[in-house]
Structure formats: C-alpha cells, structure tokens
Amino acid sequence: MKPAAHVELADLRVSTGGRNGRELLRGLSLELQGGECVGLVGESGSGKSLTSLALLDLLPSGLKASSRLRVEGQEIVLGSPAHAALRGRMFGLVPQDPLAALHPLRRIGAQLVETLRFARGLSRQAADKEAEELLRRVQMPDPRQALAKYPHLFSGGQRQRIAIALALATQPRVLIADEPTSALDARIARDILDLLDDLRREQNLALLLISHDLPLVGAYAQRLLVLRGGEVLERGDTAAVFAAPGHAYTRELLAADQLRELPAAGDDAPVLLRAENLRMRYRGAARDALDGVDVELRRGEGLALVGESGSGKSTLGRVLLKLLRGAQGRILLDGVALDSLSARELRKLRRRIGVVFQDPYASLDPRLDIACIVSEPLRIHGIGDAASRRAKASELLQAVGMDDSSLDRYPHQFSGGQRQRIAIARALATSPDLLVCDEAVSALDAHHRAAILALLAGLKRERGLALLFVTHDLAAASAVAERIAVLEQGRIVESGATAQVLSNPQHPHTQALVRARPAA
Amino acid sequence: MQTLRSLPILARGCLAMLAALALICWLGPLFSAYSPHSPDWNSLSVTPGSNGHWFGTDAIGRDIFARTLAGGRLSLTIGLLASVVALVIGLGYGAVAGLAGGRVERAMLRVLDVFSALPFLLVVILLLTLFERSLGLLLAAIGGYVWIDLARVMRAESARLREAPFVLAAHAAGATFPQRLRWHVLPNLMPLAFVYLGLILPQAILVESFLGFLGLSVDEPSASWGTLLAEGVQELDSAPWTLLFPALLLVVTLAAFQFLGDGLRDWMDLRGEAGRGEGGRGEAGRGERAESAAA
After folding, report:
1. Do A419 and B184 touch (CB under 8 A)?
2. CB contact, 8 Å: B284 with chain A?
3. CATH number corresponding to A271-364+435-515
4. For the segment A288-337, what is each residue's pLDDT rounded down to a tens digit?
C-alpha cells in the first residue's frame, strides 16, 4: 500500500485581474487525507470548480490565485513547475462530462494506453495489460472488448467509468471529482459514487467530491464544506452538519431534497384532461417513445410524470401539448377530442394550456423585452390593446413575485430563477386551466428550485390550476403533485397517490428510483 | 455603434477603407476635371500623370481616373443591390423552410440542391443574351446566383430556432406560423444575415465583374469594373495602365471585403459566446460552464 497522501490548502483566494478585480474565492482552506472523502458543496458560481482548477493549476488565464499549498509536507508555490508536475502524479481529475473528456475518434484502449505509456513509461504490452486491468477495476463489463470500442458506443455511466479509469491510469493519490454525476440519472449516479467510494477505500485515495447536491455528497463524504459566493459558510463532519446545520443556507439545501406530502385531492373534481392509448415513434427510432399511455387529470389536481432520461416523459408532455407530429391516440380536454378540431380551433384552445420548459436561458426570446414576452399569448389571441396588455403583464409579474421595474428589461438581465418566474407569468397570461411543466425546476439551483416549487404549488391552490409536472426529481414531484405516474420505456409502470407510491413502491423500477435518492 | 469597437482592428480598418472608397466613387467625379465618357482629343493613350490625367487615358482619350471611379460606383451599387436581393430571398426562403420542418423543409432543401446543381453562370449568360438587358434582370441574375448558400445557412439557423423553447412556447400558446416567423425567427436571424451580407457582397461584385468582362453587364458608354477590365485587356500591349488601375481597385475592394467578412464572423461568434455567458442563448450547461469559468 502506498503511503497516505496529505494535501493542505490554506487560505485560497482567487480574483479576476485588473484594476477592479473581483474576489471569486475568499480564503478557502481544505485538508485532504488519504482514504478520506471530503465534499465541497455549492451552487453554480460559488467557486467550487475554481477550487479544483486551482488545485490542478488549471485556472483560466487572467485569474489570479494565492494560497499556501502543502503536499506531503512540502511547500508548493501555486503555478510553479513543481505544482504543474503534481498533475496526474498526485491529482487525478474525474470530469463532469465524460463524453467531452474522451476523444471521440479514438478507441478507448488507445487513449488509456497512451496515458499509461506517457505517464508511467510502460512498454506497449505492459500498457495493454494494465489498461485492461484498469477497466476491470472500474467494474467495466467485458473489459477486453471494451478497449476496442469508441466512446460513443458506451452509455453515460459506462463513459464515466472509463473517465475514472483514465484518471486512475497515472496512479494519483488524490481524486478530484467535479460534479461527476450531474449528467447521469439518479440510479446510475449512485453506482458511480459507490465505485468511487470503493476505490477510495481499496487504494487509500483521498477523494474530493464536488457537487451542488448536498444530500448526495452527504451520503459519501466524511467531512463537508458548504460554499456560496466564494465564501465557506459551513464546514465540519458530515454527521454533525446534517444533525445541526449552522447556517440557514445549509438548512435550505438539506430541505430541498425532502419529500413532502400534499393533502390528497378529492375525486369529485371533473376530469380536465384525458388521454387514451398514446403512441409515438420518432423517425428512425428502433422502439416506441410512447407505447400505449393513458393519462387522466382532474381540475385543480397535480400529476407528476417521473422517469429516467429516455423513459418518454418529456415526449408525453409534448404529445399532450400537440407539439409533436406523428403521435397516435386520443386526447380529450373537457371531453372535446383534440383530433376532431380544425387547426384554427386547436389554436384557440391552446389558450387553456400554459407551458413552462426546462431551460430558463432558452425559454425567453433574447430580443424581446419582458413586457412583450409575458403578454405574448395575449397578442397571439388578439386580446386587449397595447395598454391593457401591459397592465396585465405587470399584474402577472406580481403574481409570480416580480415587480414592474422588470417590464422594460431584457431576459439577459435576469438570473435563471427569475427567468423561470417570467416564463411562468407568460404561461399564465391567458388564465389557463392546465399548466404543463417540462422539467421546469431541474436547471435551477437548490434555493431557486424550492422557491419556484412553492410558487407553483401556491398558484395551483389559488387559481385551481391543474398541473402536469414532468420531472426526474421525486422530491420536486412530491412538492406539487398529489398523484404520480412512473414511466419506463414509454409505458406507465406504476401510478397512484404520490405519498403512497413513494413510501410503498410496488414496481421494481419505482423501487429502484426511490432507493436512488440519497436521503433514502 | 458602441459594440463596433469590439470589432478586430483589421476588420475595422477594412470597413473604414471601403467606406472611403465608396465615398470617393460617389463624389469623385465632382473633383475630376474630365468626364468618364467624353474623349480628350489632345491626349490619346497618354501615360498616367500627363496632361492632368492622373491614371492616363485610353485609346480614344477617355480619362481612366474618371472611368475607374464611375465604374466603381456602378460595380458597388450593383453589388450592394444584388446582395440585398439575395439576402431578402435567402433569408425568407431559409427562415420559412427551417421553421416549417418536416416534409416542407425537405422539399425546399431539395429545390436548393437542384439550384446548386445548375451551371448557374451559364444560365445567367443565357438569360442575359436571350432577353433584353436591364438593370432589373442583371440584379435578379446576380442575386439569384449568390442566394443559395445564404438560404442554406439561414435554413439551418431557423431549424435550430424552431426547436428553441421560446418558439415552442409561442407555438404551444397558439401562435400561427406567420406570427412565429415574424416575432421570433426573423428577428433572431437578423444578426446572422447582417454578417452574411458582408460575405456575399464581394461575391456579387465579383459575379458582376465577370459578367461585365464578358460584355453582359452594362452597355457602353457606361462602365463597371468588369467592362473596364475587358477594355484594358484589349489595350494591354499599348496602354497597360488601362487595365492596371481598375484591376487594382477591384482586388483591393474584394480583399477588404474578405477581411471584413472574416472579422464580422469572428465578432459574431464572440458575441454569441458572451451572450451565452450572460445566458443569451444556448443550453444551461454551457451557461453554467461559462459562468464558472468567467465568475
């Protein structure tokens, strides 16, 4: 066994250069021991990625960093050749996006062998053998065959395993994993983190786990740092932090993942939306994206459609919105079959359905001001004149917790959470009966997510809105939906009251989803 | 205007030079003592500099300086008008095809393929010889030659916009096809179209010169750079300066447009990136990366 690594980073400060340079990291201290996992948690822009880049001496040019760095008792000057030499030998990096980290045109065997020969000076045969051994160690099925394949042939989880193997090839003693699972489904994310945890123990590695997901990190890290805006808000043993979070922000992050329970809706409300036997196959796809799905939604009720990526949940949302060509099946809104309508009648009926999409950055036309964006549905249907539409826009913005000063500003002047509020205001412009949210909170940071979920739950209650909530996030689903439907491979495998399904899942797939939650 | 300052220095220089050139071509004849059309019988085929003919004269005594400026005026005007024609057609066609999607888009793309497969210059030459030549026909011919690539670029961008959530949201809210086109797609295509104007302008000028060289552009006594080149080639042995000056100006103009076009394209990319950093467009993931790198 190799001697345990010991890295001490004290008072790390990073700032933008120039006269009015901003401080992006204000005095972060960190200690890593061999065999230990330290979690670094924060939202985007908190400086967590800067920390990993600073450790690796890979900060973007133009940023200035200062710190005292001690590696195995040796003082290292930041940015010195000695620091750069630690890359690979001491620090290995597990990237966020394994697809971007692997060369798309070279077999993964070639990529591993190249690294092994360069970093460890192995002979061709020895490197071949070692590459296979590395893939075995990251529990890659059939490592010998895998070596001869190209990266695109692997699934996201397998690619991340390959990226880990690549990081291990140089025999680092500290693994820095920067959001290693944010591109993966919850179940696969757990597998990857389990693997990292095993490797840490077997090889006495120090693991720096960087993520925005506090509960997830909490399940693996022994010690924690919570970052926000470049400042360390909280540090300590994981158990202690979870038991008694010292900072309000930490409590917020912890609460974001809690399952909630809405009072069950009465079954007496009239059915608003009914869909029967929906089928959809994309051009050139091997199987149906939707394979006979039935949906029923009552007035004022929230229905969550949950599933992993590729389960067909987003397709279902879009089919119900009549945004996709080539879907089969019957959709009835208030008993009126949408297929029987003319194009003109269908457009008129669209007033009654609002929609909010996932990406707050692409949801708003960058060239229009907010007044124009929010009142667009009114303009489309020729409701009111310019002045009354503006008044309505201001009213809607207030309803979503924003004020009049936003009316004449443009989307790029707002944060992601604010934009999502604006998108919700737009969806409500024509006073719809149904709001379809396609992953509406998954691109948001924890505290924005909680605020938007609260807003949606409030709007639903006050306006009697029916909510169709497409998501992969069970906690978010439980916050707004009384009923839940679990999709797998284009079929609904389980549905029922949210609380009941989540506390006592029947179908194996649902059980796996519930188990994959870190708090479970 | 303030944003123009972020344009690369080379592109800015070219822009200034082209503006100066256009100005001189338009106003130059006012300062020249000689008309581009009337011969100076006392100085036939004189070398540059003699008798106040800065660029010399041709075989029948017409002032080359005046003729080059007049030719430039015509070439630039025809190039600009033809580019605008091409831009309007290409933008409209591409935007409609991209937003429509599905079968309509595929059919419209096939039409473009057919157009690119035609030996276009041959068709243009045929048209210009068969029909009575007019400025309108000339503009249509040149515009018709350069619009195809433009339409392809616009189609691709428009198809991307079709799937953009803000266009989907408009669709879901009940917006008609023309509404989506007018409110969202066309305004968002404009910056790209503006950049491509800088790229197709030199193409249009070149095509015009080519047609002029073949004697298919404007008729005597009017002159464009192309017709001047044709005249100059005939006098190459006796009076090489008649070819030299128009050719030089044409080359300088085209080169300047090329640099300007490249500069504009890079500038657009940079602005696109910056826009993404601020969260202009593009996926959240990219936005976050830019944020963490910049922040």
Report:
1. no
2. yes
3. 3.40.50.300
4. 889 989 999 999 899 999 988 888 888 898 899 988 888 889 999 988 89
Q: Is the CB of B173 less than 8 angstroms away from the CB of A363?
A: no
> Do A332 and A273 contact (CB within 8 A), yes or no?
yes
Those residues of chain B that have pLDDT short of 70 are: 1-5, 29, 31, 33, 43, 45, 51, 53, 220-221, 269-295
> Other CB atoms closer than 10 Å to residue A442's CB: what's the count?
15
HSE, CB side, 13 Å, CA atoms: give it for residue A85.
6
Closest Cβ opposite residue B292 in set A49, A348, A350: A49
Question: Using CB atoms, which residue from B176, B279, B292 is nearest to A361?
Answer: B279
Nearest 10 degrees: Cα torsion B279, A368, A428, A278: -70
What integer pLDDT is reported at residue A223 of this predicted model?
Answer: 93
Contact status, residue A31 vs residue A93, Cβ threshold 8 Å? no
Chain B residue with the nearest C-alpha to that of A360: B284
One of 3.40.50.300, 1.10.3720.10, 3.40.980.20, 3.40.630.30 is the CATH number of A1-90+173-255, namely 3.40.50.300
Does any CB of chain B come closer than 8 Å to the CB of residue A431? no
DSSP 8-state code for residue A273: E
d(CA A352, CA A432): 4
Cα A476 from Cα A356, distance rounded (Å): 15
The more confident residue out of A438 and A518 is A438
CB < 8 Å & 24+ apart, contacts of A158-163: A159/A98, A159/A99, A159/A102, A160/A94, A160/A98, A160/A184, A160/A192, A161/A135, A161/A192, A161/A195, A162/A98, A162/A102, A162/A108, A162/A135, A162/A138, A163/A94, A163/A95, A163/A98, A163/A101, A163/A102
Q: Which residue of A has its CA nearest to B293?
A: A60
Residues of A in Cβ contact (< 8 Å) with B276: 361
Q: What is the tens place of the pLDDT at every residue in A346-402?
A: 999 999 999 999 888 889 999 899 999 999 999 999 998 999 999 999 999 998 888
- Is B104 touching A (CB cutoff 8 A)? no
Closest CA to A368 of B61, B166, B197: B166
- Of A49, A368, A412, which has the smallest distance from its Cβ to B278's Cβ? A412
Scan for tokens 């649902």, then name that residue: A510
Predicted TM-score (pTM) above 0.80: no
CB distance A429 to A376 below 8 Å: yes
Each domain of chain A, given as residue ranges in start order, spans 1-90+173-255, 101-171, 271-364+435-515
| B280 interfaces chain A, CB cutoff of 8 Å | yes
Closest residue, chain B, to A229 (C-alpha):
B295
**Chain B partners within 8 Å of A321 (Cβ):** 172
Fold match flag (A1-90+173-255 vs A271-364+435-515): yes
The residue type at B75: S
- Which one-letter amino acid corresponds to residue A517? R
Q: Are strands A231-237 and A353-356 parallel, antiparallel or unpaired?
A: unpaired
